[in-house]
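Sample A.
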Amino acid sequence: MRLQFPAYLGAAALLALLAECNSPENNPYDTPPPPSPGSGGPLLSDQEIAVARKLYVAKCAKCHKFHNPAKYADEEWRTWMRKMSRKSKLKPDQNELLSRYLATFRADAAEQVIK
């Protein structure tokens, strides 16, 4: 019986660790910074930014690091968004909000090039 107790204890510790890694609050991947105010991209309220950021962590960063949208051509980015939206089972309203949120990073990059 003594040999089984450490195994159960180890399994419980592993499960707790894995559960913690999957929680949105403890995101192991890069999370994009909030878009800069007045980014010139699609306007988002502070509440929409908070909801979109939480959605990003829960649906995107759960599986991969942040891929900066500004580093992709428009059509290539739209293709990836379509694929990943289906894979992460985003609802249409979630897809629209997340797309607008991530578009702010494209706008920020374009603004930096112009300056």
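Sample B, a different protein:
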Amino acid sequence: MIMPNDTLSSPTTKVVPSPATQPALPVTAPTAPMRVPHRPVAVRRNARVSRRIKRLSWAVLAAVLAGAIALGLRPHPVLVETARAGRGTLLVTVDEDGRTRVKDRYLVSSPLAGTVRRAVLRAGDSVAQGDIVARLVPVAAPLLDPRSRAESEARVSAARAALRQAGTTVQRARAAYTLAARDAQRQRNLLRQGATAPQMAEQTETAERMRQEELASSEFGLQVAASELRLAQAALARIGARSPEEFLVRAPVGGHVLRVLQESEAAVQPGTPLLEMGNPLALEVVVDVLTTDAVDIRPGAPVRIDRWGGDSAITGHVHRVEPSAFTRLSALGVEEQRVNVIIDLDPPRSRWAALGDGYRVEASISVWQGDDRLMVPAGAVFRQGDDWATYVVQDGRAHLRILQLGRRNNAAVEVLGGLGRGERVVLYPTDNVSDGVRAEVR
């Protein structure tokens, strides 16, 4: 039996059944095969076009997927911040914290041991030269235990008895002197009349002088006894009794009270600080800097004072750099050698009138200035072995460039070679930035 088939290339196909599956038939004459009519040409063409479109679609899809995978595996450009190298004025400064202080300050101390009265002056009070700034009185008598009191009472009784004894001695010496004086006067009268020898007159005069000296000595003994009595009685004086004696401490100069160091009444020793005085209108700034920075600071160098509390910066100049340094521990516990730099504030005083003694300030001391210098930000340079280097962005890629540097400050660095004006450098490069890596500017 002949059947049409669309998938065959020939118009008809003859199918011969197997002899094992077909029953025997009588032999007949062969018949002519049946022919199937051809499909239209347009149908066959559409089928071929459809197959081509499907193949092309799959090819495009595969190409898109391959491109997406390649694009995903391709390294992304590193995002960087850049700045351009330019010319300008480079100012190198030494920046440190400082504090204000009164130029001439006076420490008033106690000249004697005693009790200082409660201070009536307060910080900021104005005083003139010679004004009373403190009062000193004697220290109160100490407390006595029973044994010490009994001893003191016995000393008083003994002193009274010694005083009476000295009084009787004076009376006896005065009587003897009176008798000797009369005898001497009689001998002088008899000598003028020639009734006695000159030797007798001399003896009586000598006796008179001796009795006179004895009287004077006994009177001195009476005074000593009286003093000893007063001394013994003073040991028994009433506790808390105040002496009328008072020592006045006066201001050595005119000015203002800066600090009252001893405000309450207390017993003080010689040299105990009582208060500080000075003129708060005459201020200076003290800045301690590293000795390695101090070697570049010269007297007269301009100074800019910032963050002192006012609306605008204050200007000043270096007065002197102290010749002796000192050791100070840093915040990290490292010993540093530092030296004080004294700065005078520039007029007018009205700009810094609000400043007082001991105020904190930030000072920028100028040590070098260069005009028309090629500079880049300080965050763009880094160490590359023993050299300084930077990354320059060109044609979308970062290129490592070795530089020759000059002076620098906290914000900018002078470039002496290796970089041109207008070139774009990478700021604060991370570990992702390397020579030749693709870079994209933020």
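Observation for Sample B: The chain has a mean pLDDT of 84.
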